Amino acid sequence: MSNAELANALLLACQQRGIMLATAESCTGGLIIAALTDIAGSSAVVDRGFITYSNEAKMEMLGVSAATLDAHGAVSRETVLEMASGALAHSRASLSLAVTGIAGPSGGSADKPVGLIWFGLALAGQPVVAERQLFGHKGREFIRHETVRHALQLGLRALG
């Protein structure tokens, strides 16, 4: 399935459940919300997208704690969980998708290599979940495209 088909399927799943969706994006810079809003009629279920590239934006817009960022960094399980929770808390959505990672080509380290992406998903009334993916050092465009794809798939799986 293409990203456009995945986005359409996720919008339909949200519509069938009567829920709104929000995103909290760092490394994708809005590509997930763009994939969703590229589809006519998406306004029926898309509430908003938070583009939180900087740590300050994560704190100000989503309520990610400075202590979390200091202790674990922006690219971490702890941060993405707070991003996903914050997107729900600061929107009318019942489902949020959050991503943070290292798209490269620079910025990686031994512990956090280029291609490392953390995904967060919050669904109202359920525990927030996080998932780690390593897409490898295959280029910024590839990593960001696969991040969008995986986030949309994660949302679809959650709505089952």
From TrEMBL:
Gene3D superfamilies: CinA-like (3.90.950.20). Pfam families: CinA. SUPFAM superfamilies: CinA-like. Residues 5-154 form the CinA C-terminal domain. It comes from the Bacteria. InterPro entries: CinA-like_C, CinA_C. This is CinA C-terminal domain-containing protein. It comes from Mesorhizobium amorphae CCNWGS0123.
